[in-house]
Amino acid sequence: MYLDHFVAQNYRNLKNIDINFDPNVNIFIGKNAQGKTNLLEAIYFLALTRSHRTSSDKELIAFGKDYANLMGHVHKSQVNSDLRVLITKKGKKVWVNRVEQAKVSKYIGQLNAILFSPEDLELIKGAPALRRRFMDQEFGQINPEYLYFASKYRQVLFQRNNYLKQLAKGEAHDLVFLDVLSDQLAGIAAEIVVRRFKFLNYLSRFASDAYTHISSADEVLTVTYHPSVVDIKATDSTEDIYHKVLANYKRSKNNEIRKGTTLSGPHRDDIEFKLDGKDAHLYGSQGQQRTIALSIKLAEIQLVHQLTDEYPLLLLDDVMSELDHSRQSALLNYIHGKTQTFITTTDLEGISWEIIKQPKIYRIQSGKISLEKGELNG
Ligand SMILES: Nc1ncnc2c1ncn2[C@@H]1O[C@H](COP(=O)(O)OP(=O)(O)OP(=O)(O)O)[C@@H](O)[C@H]1O
């Protein structure tokens, strides 16, 4: 898939962008604070109806304005679609082919985008919550059922935690009601866990390949899913997982009531990254961790392709200058001809662009975009 026509109005410092992108590679050059990240964020928002930088949509509306508007025309192998997102201070609305969609889940998946920025290092270095958010965001994008179960899980978990708190304080006493909530939560947990196993299994294989390709080292990357209910196995059916989660709730019932919270389930899961069997979170160098994070993003491209038959957009925010020459070339080689790619950089120099044949090069200045004249490789 690719995005050809794109409009952004009152989106942060992008007052009025109306632009036709190249189906292959688009490079945006600009000094700091000119709007490069804002542009990638806007494209990402059009795809996923949320920002990768903030959970407050209001921040995205240009200072002094009441709304931000994003529109795009998406080309796919089967059907094309027109997408629109309107962000106001009261909330957001979405349209597909000029028909407003009451449910965001009907909208997500029309345009797939994978974004990679220097902050993604945190996926390896940071806390487990970031890796869970990664799973929810990325798997939700490719699987509407995952999106549905993840949101349902949050609702029922909230309800169960509230009830456990009431039991802890002696404000509630009905243990049968706790069993009802446990049963409900275990059912949803099983649907999530079974999908996490499936998608992470694909992701692991693709990420190992990408890591070998990018790093040209002999190290082997393995990515392993760790459900917090430890006796769950990859070969378990949804039914098996449901019974194991439920049994776990039964075992820890008294402890959960004492603590007033749900102690296990998908909200406590984690992913482990290992290089040659050693935990990269603890022992990986900054460079190795960065290459792992990049490999995960490249693996996602393959995962989306595997599941939807389309390659997603790849948004690379300020990452080229952080990679050495061989990694830059390996990256560009890996994605060349597959994904529509958007690259931001402060400077064209020092980057191995030779693999890209005819990119469109733009300059961004104070939120305005102009097509840059001049050749890349000469
Ligand atoms: N809601 C908003 N309304 C107007 N301008 C905004 C809004 N939010 C952020 N900005 C402006 O956007 C600019 C930052 O743009 P952006 O983050 O895209 O920078 P960048 O070009 O990626 O720079 P860098 O290379 O430093 O990452 C700042 O000047 C900031 O004031």
Automatic annotation (TrEMBL):
Q: Does the keyword Nucleotide-binding apply?
A: yes
Can you give the residue ranges of the RecF/RecN/SMC N-terminal domain? Answer: 2-347
Keyword terms? ATP-binding, Cytoplasm, DNA damage, DNA repair, DNA replication, DNA-binding, Nucleotide-binding, SOS response
InterPro entries in alphabetical order:
DNA-binding_RecF, DNA-binding_RecF_CS, P-loop_NTPase, RecF/RecN/SMC_N, RecF_2
Where ATP binds, per the record, is at G30, K31, N32, A33, Q34, G35, K36, T37
- GO molecular function annotations of the record: ATP binding; single-stranded DNA binding
GO CC, sorted alphabetically, is:
cytoplasm
Main site of residence?
A: cytoplasm
Tell me the Gene3D superfamilies matching this sequence.
Answer: P-loop containing nucleotide triphosphate hydrolases (3.40.50.300), RecF/RecN/SMC, N-terminal domain (1.20.1050.90)
Instruction: Answer yes or no on keyword Protease.
Output: no
Which GO biological process categories is it annotated with? DNA replication; DNA synthesis involved in DNA repair; double-strand break repair; SOS response
State the compartments where it is located: Cytoplasm
Q: SUPFAM superfamilies this protein is in? A: P-loop containing nucleoside triphosphate hydrolases (SSF52540)
Query: What functional role does this protein have?
Result: The RecF protein is involved in DNA metabolism; it is required for DNA replication and normal SOS inducibility. RecF binds preferentially to single-stranded, linear DNA. It also seems to bind ATP.
Q: Which PANTHER family did the record assign? A: DNA REPLICATION AND REPAIR PROTEIN RECF
List, alphabetically, the NCBIfam families matched. Answer: recf
- Family indicated by similarity: Belongs to the RecF family.
Please state what the protein is called: DNA replication and repair protein RecF
Source organism of this protein record? Lactobacillus acetotolerans
